[in-house]
Design brief:
elongated, two-stranded antiparallel sheet, 137 residues, single chain, 2 strands, mainly alpha
Length: 137
């Protein structure tokens, strides 16, 4: 299957598939004409990558998931531990986004939204930086 068909089968873009190949996450076979040729194993890998990325797994975590998926001797507890770490990261991002939402709501509420040039939103953006909770510096 060529890269265009692989993209349609997996929901990934051709560019993304090329990138995954470049960084060694998948290895396409090569047809006699030199074009990439994706078999069922690579399509399975690409589907796993698409789903894992959708769920917020990073590239290195995806590499680990691919390795675990290929290992019939894997322990499901290892897969679960990786998923739990990802869940913690997702929850942290949710907390950060909630804090951003509150900050934006506060700025918007302070702005009169009229024809006057005074704007609490711009004043807030020009003020001290508030990195919020869960931000390490």
């Amino acid at each position: 299957m060529n890269i265009g068909h692989a993209a349609k089968e997996t929901g990934l873009s051709v560019k993304t598939i090329r990138y995954y190949e470049d960084i060694g996450l998948v290895a396409a076979n090569r047809a006699q004409n030199g074009y990439r040729d994706f078999g069922s194993r690579q399509i399975t890998q690409l589907r796993l990558l698409a789903q894992a990325r959708h769920l917020g797994f990073g590239l290195e975590e995806c590499r680990q998931l691919l390795d675990m998926n290929a290992d019939p001797q894997r322990a499901s507890r290892d897969v679960q531990a990786l998923a739990l770490r990802n869940l913690d990261a997702v929850r942290s991002k949710i907390r950060q986004l909630s804090a951003l939402e509150q900050q934006l709501e506060t700025l918007i509420d302070k702005c009169h939204g009229n024809d006057d040039p005074d704007c609490a939103i711009l004043d807030g953006l020009n003020g001290p930086i508030d990195l919020g909770p869960d931000t390490a510096e």
